[in-house]
TrEMBL record:
Superkingdom of source: Bacteria
A Pfam family: MFS_1
Primary site of residence: membrane
GO cellular component labels: plasma membrane
Transmembrane residue ranges: 21-47, 59-79, 86-105, 111-134, 166-187, 213-233, 253-271, 278-298, 304-321, 362-384
GO molecular function list: transmembrane transporter activity
Organism: SAR92 clade bacterium
The keyword Glycosyltransferase belongs to this UniProt entry's keyword annotation: no
InterPro entries linked to this entry: MFS, MFS_Efflux_Transporters, MFS_trans_sf
Protein keywords: Cell membrane, Membrane, Transmembrane, Transmembrane helix
Protein name per Swiss-Prot or TrEMBL: MFS transporter
Bilayer topology: Multi-pass membrane protein
Cellular compartments annotated: Cell membrane
Length: 400
């Protein structure tokens, strides 16, 4: 335990400490704050700063793209560098960038500042996700994280629209700074036995059964999934407003739909225990393609209710299944810190593709068709894995 400088809990794995799990959960909520709050933040950029719809896509892509870069940086250094130091670096970048955004409102400068903020958030978040992945029961830890997102997302959807742009940035700054009071709860390094586990074959992972490309393929599928999620979630409120949907109704739908995450966590666990991870994930991605594609014909108060409520429920389904699948094939936790990177990369591509579609005057119908197609492409990758391994390695194909 002295090697990790974690609180003395008597646990062999310091990442199983309730303090480590608690601070990691808090950090994921803060680090993913822009991601889950992007619909109202995007609207604020338009209404409060005067950005165009195309510019919003670029700024959102820069912010969430920085998240991806930060996660990759963390994955490179996390085994060699004190985790608390990484958190301090990420936290400092995010705080400085958000503070500068309060006084700087020029589009070109904001674009780079949001990338810097995302970079800091990515480093900060990747450490937290890696700590959860290094616990003895990572799937349960990720489920707890996604369960907590239901409440944080609802709070963001309700309170952020009530704030000025500087108020929104200030909230993020304060939430990051709170971490400093509890930074000692983060283990400095993984225990020695975890480091030894990382010495695996270049060709096989997990008892030499799973080919090494599988976790990478899972990460690629996660990127493609988040192209859909990033584009849809960035533009859903703006698209609804453009189609003359009642703005107050849309705001209420976005707030209350966040609680669908609770239902998603519950049923995702029940279904995975009965049917495994891959089969429910395939059905979920097909359903996701339908509920985002249905908006291509126009948005009404009725279909946005169905689409957004279903989207939030299925988003949690997908995250539970994807994160748990990676946890099952990568017991070293080596890929855990790359998951925010995969999500962030999808969040770069998705909003920027949507912005390009809007720039070509294809409208929001084109955006939602693209979102639906991305969900189907991700589904095809998991379908390949399912058919490839259901007989060869059934313990992977039917893993819970």
């Amino acid at each position: 335990m002295s090697e990790t400088n974690a609180p003395n809990t008597g646990l062999k794995n310091p990442f199983d400490s309730w303090k480590s799990i608690a601070i990691s959960l808090y950090m994921t909520l803060v680090g993913y704050g822009v991601l889950v709050g992007i619909p109202v933040i995007s609207t604020a950029w338009v209404t409060l700063l005067g950005f165009s719809e195309v510019e919003v896509g670029r700024v959102a892509g820069a912010d969430l793209g920085g998240l991806s870069v930060g996660a990759v940086v963390t994955a490179i250094f996390i085994a060699k560098v004190n985790r608390r130091m990484l958190v301090l670096v990420g936290l400092s970048l995010a705080v400085i960038a958000n503070a500068l955004c309060i006084s700087i409102v020029d589009y070109d400068q904001v674009l780079w500042l949001r990338f810097l903020s995302g970079l800091g958030s990515g480093i900060y978040t990747a450490v937290a996700v890696s700590c959860l992945g290094a616990s003895s029961k990572p799937a349960r830890a990720y489920n707890a994280m996604l369960f907590a997102f239901a409440f944080s997302q609802a709070l963001e959807m309700h309170f952020l629209p009530l704030l000025s742009m500087s108020g929104i940035y200030t909230v993020f700054i304060v939430c990051f700074l709170i971490t400093l009071a509890f930074i000692d709860w983060i283990p400095k390094r993984a225990p020695a036995e975890s480091s030894n586990m990382a010495e695996v074959s270049d060709n096989k992972i997990v008892d030499q059964n799973i080919p090494a490309y599988v976790p990478w393929l899972c990460l690629v599928a996660m990127v493609i999934t988040y192209i859909n999620i990033g584009a849809y979630w960035t533009y859903i409120e703006l698209a609804a407003t453009a189609d003359q949907a009642d703005s107050e109704w849309v705001g209420q739908v976005l707030t209350w739909s966040s609680l669908c995450s609770l239902v998603g966590c519950l049923f995702a666990t029940i279904l995975s225990n009965r049917y495994g991870l891959l089969r429910p994930l395939l059905v979920t991605l097909i359903t996701m393609a339908v509920i985002v594609g249905m908006l291509a014909n126009g948005i009404t108060d009725k279909n946005i209710l169905i689409s957004v409520f279903s989207f939030n429920c299925l988003w949690i389904f997908i995250d539970v299944y994807q994160m748990s699948t990676i946890a099952n094939v990568d017991k070293t936790g080596r890929f855990a810190s790359l998951m925010p990177g995969a999500q962030g990369l999808g969040q770069i591509i998705g909003p920027n593709m949507a912005a390009s579609i809007l720039g070509l005057n294809l409208g929001y119908s084109g955006v939602f068709v693209m979102c639906s197609a991305a969900a189907l492409v991700a589904m095809s990758l998991y379908l390949f894995m399912y058919f490839r391994f259901r007989r060869k390695i059934p313990e992977f194909a039917y893993a819970t």
